Amino acid sequence: MKYTRTSVQAGKExxxxxxxxxxxxxxxxxxxxxxxxxxxxxxxxxxxITDDQDAKTLGVYGDNDxxxxxxxxxxxxxxxxxxxxxxxxxxAAVCTxxxxxxxxxxxxxxxxxxxxxxxxxxxxxxxxxNYAKISPKDPSYYSLPALFKRAGYxxxxxxxxxxxxxxxxxxxxxxYDKTNRGSEDENASQWHSDKVIDYLDRRIDQSTDxxxxxxxxxxxxxxxxRGKPVLLEKYGAIYPGPPTTVNPRSPxxxxxxLPAHPFEEGHPDLRDENSVEGVMKKRDEATVRNxxxxxxxxxxxxxxxxxxxxxxxxxxxxxENTYIFFVSDHxxxxxxxxxxxxxxxxxxxxxxxxxxxxxxxxxxxxxKGNIYLSDVLPTLCDLASIxxxxxxxxxxxxxxxxxxxxxxxxxxxxVYSGGxxxxxxxxxxxxxxxxxxxxxxxxxxxxxLFNLKDNPNELLIEHHDSKVIALTGNRPKNNQVNLADFPExxxxxxxxEALLLSEMKALKDxxxxxxxx
Length: 517
Prior knowledge:
Blueprint: H1 5-39, E1 44-51, H2 69-76, E2 79-85, E3 88-89, H3 95-104, H4 127-132, H5 144-150, E4 154-159, H6 166-169, E5 174-177, H7 189-206, E6 212-221, H8 229-234, H9 271-274, H10 285-316, E7 322-328, H11 347-350, E8 354-357, E9 365-372, H12 376-383, H13 398-401, E10 411-416, E11 423-429, E12 432-439, E13 444-451, H14 466-472, H15 490-506
Parallel strand pairs: 1-6, 1-7, 2-9, 3-10, 4-5, 4-6
Antiparallel strand pairs: 2-8, 7-8, 10-11, 11-12, 12-13
């Protein structure tokens, strides 16, 4: 072939054009690959859990006595679930099964045989050695840290010591457990937040892209509620108490306050009802209001520490790709219904606060949810695109988070069997809730029926007493009582009794009540 000067010149002009076109294609390919990389980037998880916190201590649930600007901000920028529960307990230490359910996705009865032994005080954490010892036959293999480890996450835990599933705790990459219920920073909530902040600082220094799962557990507001002096003063409380007179700055009595529970609830020697520091067996106005002030002082301190962690998280540049959960392991009475602890099935103790903020979550939204702590594991897996173990009881509520559904189940169960057997059971469907007591070796057999729409605080006839009304300032309506023995509610009671038995069977509850067949 004969080449002319013109064709050679044309070739010289075409080659740069081809190179330029190829460069453009490479650039677009790089952008495409970068976009795909962004699409598959795993979200981070910051899971914050408090100890013994009634949802109504927070403004988003209707109580403005406590200053919690950081938790309030999470709620205003995210989703608040108004019907979240922990399911209950078969032992006095309610937090143990509740945290086991969270870590495993199991229901309350399925957690009975899990390892809940405390680690020795001189324990040195060696995650890789611990992980090498387990197999798919071990329940810990399908626990939260194990699942996220296998998905490429770095897992971090700081929490109180004990009262949880030790099999899961052994599998976090980093672990810092210490019970901190003092008033000084090194023995209070700041100890936990400092551990997380230190880890986030290290992430900044290392410039790592590895996604993280942080489990940040605070030891308060569980008693002893040794708050910072300045916050105790703010909430009209003294330490340890009880005071001899009412401080007008202390929080008011809750509307469902009683000086005593109307009947023995089945655990007469219970620590929470007899030995809380500054309370003991006292339930008078000054004592209860002082303890509530101490409670709010510790909650505000927790809120301050959450603010510090969120500020550091923002400094990492990873805030926008992080799901933030705020929950508690269960609720607490602190004077409601004449009780001090959480070993009961009234809403204040069975219900938990539950707030979620994160990618693509609509701000300032509320949904019912009808969830348990058992549902946390499958939901976190779902958000992180991790396969959900088939054997677990819990359900993912990602559809509630995304706004596609309002609830994931119709019925909510409650169990307390930590005292005399069979104990207390509850079932809730729609506006109706049934609670049954079969305790003290059959000496106490009671049934309560509430319409929670009409009687959200589960008020009893004792709340109508003029002396109680004078203390709470709340005058109940006539229908705000236990409806179980009212003739007009006979059919509703039968319906709820049948539902309770059906749910007990479904959960393989090992007990039956005096009137169940």
